[in-house]
Amino acid sequence: LPVMFITSKYLSDVDVDCIYLDESWGNTIAVEHLLHRGYRRIGFIGEPNTQNRLDFFLEIMRRHGIEVNPDFIHVGPERGEDGGYKRMREILNLPEIPDAIYASYDQMAIGAIHALQESGLRVPQDVAVIGFDDIPIARYICGGITTVRTSFDDMAAIVVRILTHRLQHPEGQIQQVAVKATLVVRATT
Description:
Radius of gyration: 18 Å
Helix content: 25-40%
Distance between the termini: 46 Å
Low-confidence stretches: none
Order of helices and strands: EEHEHEHEHEEHEE
Mean pLDDT: 95
Number of strands: 9
Largest sheet: 4 strands, parallel
């Protein structure tokens, strides 16, 4: 049976067809959007499964010559909205807070926005928030969360096309396809 491997990065040593979201690109457009909007004190919230996005964030900031305050990086065990809320509460207890938060995914962004609003802060006037994934509810929270969109419909169509080709040509060239994300700018930045 033909196999299609779905991953988050290019894998040079895999001998099956692959499709991957170019997370490097997605993270780059997210961070550069914040930088182009004038934010410089940018924090990051996540959980252990989002270490890859944290690494990209730090690399992009370094590439732009922006020093990241390590106090603005909060990664913890809780996931989803609860994790975003708790990480943001930790940041809000600092003497100085960031002017923008890069949430590793949209559910984290939702929790962070709730913590900010609960503390009397305005998004984006006091603290901007950006997420990743463009989940359906993202357009309805706080006037819409700025996020990085991944087109799962396009990815599914590509997977079907490659698997169909593989059925017809089992010995054909192995393919690795990168899917680039797009930035969706909404009210939180």
